[in-house]
Design brief:
The chain has 428 residues and is of the alpha/beta class. 47% of the residues lie in helices and 17% in strands. It is built from 17 helices and 14 strands. The strands form three sheets. It has a six-stranded mixed β-sheet, sandwiched between helices. Helix 10 links the parallel strand 9 and strand 10. The termini are far apart.
Length: 428
C-alpha cells in the first residue's frame, strides 16, 4: 500500500501564476524583436539596474574577472570542467556516423553534425550558478559547436567574476552581462550588436523557461526546466539526518522546489521531519528551504520495493537519490528520472557541481519522455542516401510508384516513374 504522509501544493495552486508569466514574457519578446538594443537596455535597467556601454564583455574585462578570483577558485573551476568535458567527450565518441548498403546499389547513412551556434544562459539571481556555465558551454564545445555565446545577469552591480571565468575557461566565444527574458530574447532573435543563435540552452526561473517555450521553433532548445526537483528513495539503511540533508540540500534552490521522501521504512518516515527542523534551525538558506519543504515537501510510505519503483516512475523526478542497500535494483528497473544517484556515497550536489554528468535535467514529469542536456543535444543526426546503379533505382522506383499511388500523390509517383523509365527497360 502506498500512503502519502505529507503532501505539497495542488496542481491548481502551482499553475495559478502561469498566465501572468506567459503574458509578461510574450510582451518582452515582442518588444526585443521590434526594438532590439533599445528594448534590451530598457529591460536591463528595469530588472537589473544595469546599463553598461556594451553588454558584451571585452577581452580585458574577461581577463580582469579571471584575475579577480583566488587561484583556488580558478583551479576548482578547471577541475569541474575537466570532469564534465571528459564525460562529454566519451559521450561524443559514442555517436558514430554510419553508412550501409541496404540493397545492392542502395547506400544509406547518417552524419552527426553539430549545430552552428548556441546561446548559453546562466542564472544569477538568488544564487550565481557558476556550474551552469560548465554544463552548457563546456558540453557545447565538446560537441563541436562553432560559435558559443553566453549570458548571465549582473550580480551585485557588476558581472560575476566566477561566472565569467567559467564561461571563458569553458570556451565561450562571446560573453554578455545581461539577464532574464531579455537575454534569452537577444540571443535567439538578435539585436543590432548580437547575431542570433540557432539553439538556446541553460536553466532559469519561470520567466526564462517560458521565454524558451515561446521561442522554441524559431530556435532549438535543450528542454523546459522548471523548479529543481529531488526524490529520495530510501530504506532503513538510510538515517534521518542523511535524508533531511539530501532533501533540504535541494529545497534551498527555491520556494517552488519539490522535495520528496519515498520510503518503505516507517521509522525513517517518522523521524525525518524532526531531522529537517534541526537542519533548518541553523542552515543559512533556511528561509527558502523551509518554504519549499512546507509547500512542496512530501513523504510517501510504501510496503514493497516494487511499490517504490512504481511510485518513483510515477513521480518522474529530475533528481533521484537511491539510498538503499541495493541501489542497482532501481537502476535495473526504473525508467522515469532525469538522473540517478546510486548509493549513500553520492548525492545530487556532486552531479550539480563537479562529478561530470550534466545538471540540466528534465522537470515537471518530462523525464517520462526525455533525458537531460548532454553532448548529443547539440548534434543533428542527418541522413543521406545514394543509389549507385540503374538496376537499384528502377527497383526502388517500382515500389515507390505503387506506394505513391495508394496515397494519390501523382507528383511523387511521377518522380519514381521517371527513374523507372530512364533506368529500366520496363515501361511503367
Amino acid at each position: 500500500m502506498i500512503r502519502c504522509l505529507k503532501s505539497g501544493q495542488s496542481a491548481a495552486a502551482k499553475a495559478e501564476s502561469s498566465l501572468h508569466v506567459r503574458n509578461t514574457v510574450e510582451a518582452i519578446l515582442n518588444d526585443v524583436a521590434l526594438h532590439g538594443e533599445k528594448a534590451l537596455r530598457q529591460y536591463s535597467e528595469k530588472f537589473d539596474q544595469w546599463s553598461p556601454d556594451s553588454f558584451r564583455l571585452s577581452e580585458g574585462e574577461v581577463e580582469d574577472c579571471v584575475r579577480a578570483l583566488p587561484s583556488r577558485v580558478v583551479a576548482d573551476i578547471r577541475f569541474a570542467q575537466t570532469q564534465i568535458r571528459n564525460f562529454a567527450l566519451v559521450q561524443r565518441a559514442a555517436l558514430r556516423d554510419v553508412e550501409v548498403e541496404t540493397l545492392p546499389g542502395v547506400v544509406l547513412g547518417h552524419k552527426n553534425i553539430p549545430v552552428n551556434s548556441v546561446g548559453c544562459y546562466v542564472p544569477g539571481g538568488r544564487y550565481p550558478m557558476v556550474a551552469s556555465a560548465h554544463m552548457s558551454v563546456v558540453t557545447a564545445k565538446a560537441a563541436g559547436v562553432k560559435r558559443i555565446i553566453a549570458a548571465a545577469p549582473p550580480f551585485g552591480g557588476k558581472p560575476h567574476p566566477a561566472i565569467v571565468a567559467a564561461m571563458h575557461l569553458g570556451g565561450a566565444d562571446e560573453i554578455y552581462a545581461i539577464g532574464g527574458v531579455q537575454a534569452v530574447a537577444a540571443m535567439a532573435l538578435g539585436t543590432e550588436s548580437i547575431a542570433p543563435v540557432e539553439m538556446l540552452v541553460g536553466p532559469g526561473n519561470a520567466y526564462v523557461a517560458e521565454a524558451k517555450r515561446q521561442l522554441f521553433g524559431r530556435v532549438g532548445i535543450d528542454l523546459l526546466a522548471g523548479p529543481t526537483e529531488t526524490l529520495i528513495i530510501a530504506d532503513d539503511s538510510c538515517d534521518a539526518e542523511m535524508a533531511a540533508v539530501d532533501l533540504i540540500g535541494q529545497a534551498e534552490h527555491g520556494p517552488g522546489s519539490p522535495a520528496v521522501l519515498l520510503t518503505n521504512s516507517a521509522a525513517l518516515a517518522e523521524e525525518t521531519p524532526a531531522a529537517i527542523e534541526r537542519l533548518l534551525a541553523w542552515l543559512p538558506t533556511a528561509d527558502v528551504a523551509r518554504e519549499a519543504w512546507q509547500n512542496n515537501g512530501e513523504i510517501i510510505l510504501c510496503d514493497t520495493l516494487e511499490e517504490l519503483v512504481a511510485e518513483g516512475d510515477r513521480i518522474a523526478s529530475e533528481h533521484v537519490q537511491i539510498l538503499t542497500r541495493d541501489p542497482d535494483y532501481f537502476l535495473a528497473r526504473m525508467t522515469n528520472y532525469g538522473a540517478l544517484f546510486l548509493g549513500h556515497r553520492t548525492n545530487v550536489a556532486y552531479g550539480d557541481k563537479v562529478i561530470g554528468t550534466n545538471h540540466t535535467l528534465p522537470t515537471m514529469k518530462a523525464a517520462r519522455y526525455t533525458g537531460g542536456l548532454w553532448v548529443g543535444k547539440f548534434i543533428k543526426t542527418c541522413t543521406y542516401q545514394r543509389v549507385l546503379t540503374d538496376e537499384a533505382s528502377a527497383l526502388i522506383g517500382e515500389y515507390c510508384s505503387r506506394l505513391c499511388e495508394i496515397e494519390n500523390f501523382a507528383g511523387h509517383k511521377e518522380q519514381a516513374d521517371l527513374r523507372v523509365r530512364r533506368y529500366s527497360a520496363q515501361v511503367v
